[in-house]
Amino acid sequence: MTPTDSLLAFTLAATLLTVTPGLDTALILRTATVEGSRQAAKAALGINAGCLLWGAAVAFGLGAVLAVSEVAYTLLKYCGAAYLCWLGINLLRSPRASFSGPDARQGGGNWFVRGLLGNALNPKVGIFYVSFLPQFIPAGSPLVAWTFGLVGIHIALGVLWAGALILATRPLGKALRRPAVVRWMDRATGAVFLLFAARLAFSKR
Residue 138: what are its φ and ψ, rounded to 5°? Predict the structure, then answer.
């Protein structure tokens, strides 16, 4: 496969993976709807920063350790599940009536950090990069440069997709920020986080 073929094939595969609904999509949609575009953009940047960290880990060989070490994989998996569980329980226990004022209990957090930790503590992302990226690196090509290049494409696609999600919530923003809807969004997102926490905790390689 030529370098051009590799880039085209990876871009197509990464696009399909990016738009597939998952935890990142749920986090961005909820944050954009309840807290506005600015906070959602921070969450999206955090998510993509997590991808960059995993890309660096793969490029410099740390991802391979995760792929072969059961202890490292299990430890990171449970840390990630515990973090998602914590977020989910907080949203379920303390849903807000608005995203400002005294009810903004969940909104005061740093959404960049939340997005970053959501990816950085998910070993599935690391395993995915370890197993997925090498398939699109032409034989004899510099590993580090190509790894970062492919990760850069994935991040660019993630930014575009996050922007589309954020823009899609704007026409409905006023209606979706009603107190009852805000509470429902918090509880629904909390439930999604708990489901992903359970899925991660009980997942196998």
Answer: -60, 145
Residue tagged 């790894």 (tokens):
147
* Angle (nearest 5°) at CA 50 between 49 and 53: 90
Q: Exposed/middle/buried for 136, CB within 10 Å: 0-12, 13-18, 19+?
A: buried
| Residues 166, 44: Cα–Cα separation, whole Å | 10
Alpha carbon of residue 64 to chain centroid: 21
Q: Which residues contact 67 (CB under 8 A, 6 or more apart)?
A: 73, 126, 127, 130, 131
Contact between residue 116 and residue 50 where contact means Cβ atoms under 8 Å apart? yes
Q: Is the pTM of this model over 0.90?
A: no
One-letter amino acid at 17 equals L
What are the mean pLDDT values of the chain's consecutive 10-residue runs (205 residues total)?
85 83 81 85 93 86 67 77 83 68 47 86 74 78 87 94 89 68 77 80 72
The answer to whether the CB of 59 falls within 8 A of the CB of 147 is yes
Q: Is 140 left (phi over 0), alpha (psi -120 to 50) or beta?
A: left
Query: Which sequence spans correspond to the domains of the chain?
Result: 3-17+24-201
Burial 115-128 (b: 16+ CB within 10 A, else e): bbbbbbbbbbbbbb
